[in-house]
Amino acid sequence: MNKAVFFDRDGVVNIDTGYVGRIEDFTFIDGIIPAMRNALQQGYLLIIVTNQSGIGRGYYTEDDFQQLTVWMKSELAQQGVIIDAVFHCPHTDSDQCDCRKPKPGLFLQAIDKFDVDCDNSWMVGDSERDIEAAVTAGIGHTVFFDPDNNKTTSAQYRISSLDELAALLR
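Above: the chain sequence. Below: its structure as tokens.
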């Protein structure tokens, strides 16, 4: 079995400016690259799980998203960070799919594909949707990333800087 760190994308990996679907709109959040590198060095798989309703709403296409994903993974690889997979949901809430967080479908796909040891895995998210999906999927540890420290969460841990993640992973 493999331990993994799941990361939400918009708001954790990159600055969430609203429906980020193109390379020119993507900016990495300070601290994400060292945080991911540290997790990788500790033997974790790195998996991104992201709602992308901008596709379903027609703000950008599946192809736009895939191009951005290839670029993002390449940029991270140049910094020594290998992303094992990116699972995304292109649907809107009204589609009632099983993959849109807070439903656990994206996690369940990853758990199945990578034989994930849920008890020893982590989710880093910036919304209650992320935390709820992880808990429902059985992910053992949840981290709420809240730079402004002004949101409520049911997560086990709260961090205001991604630099704090290294101290939590074990």
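The chain has one domain: 6-168.
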